[in-house]
Amino acid sequence: xxxxxxxxxxxxxxxxxxxxxxxxxxGLKLKDIEVVADQKVKTAxxxxxxxxxxxxxxxxxxxxxxxxxxxRGEGIYHLALEVSNLxxxxxxxxxxxxxxxxxxxxxxxxxxxxxxxHPKASKVLxxxxxxxxxxxxxxxxRFDPRPPTPQ
Length: 151
Prior knowledge:
This protein has four helices and eight strands.
């Protein structure tokens, strides 16, 4: 079911400030900054080998990330594990009695489909990620409405 660690999500007050640590001090490259409006979050994607660091800044004082930082401070927010078929993974985990936050996939950054497991199931917030289709290395997401790219 699990293919690899897709990324580690880190809650921050300011993406602009946090990016400097990873780019200026650690020499990593910023791939993209994207706003996910329905999740009230701005993200910065920083590739590290086959995985990524995802910085998360709230775009709303009432957003989940803002509330997390208010309670716990900046830091690791979630661990994202990559799966090839998100709905199948959710169905399997649900049958096994694993507490889910999301019963169905929703849209994530970089065109991915995502769903979260409840932290009471694993002691940490786990995000399952099905990559988007189009890079040539991922399987096509059943939730990606774009037509296939000609090969």
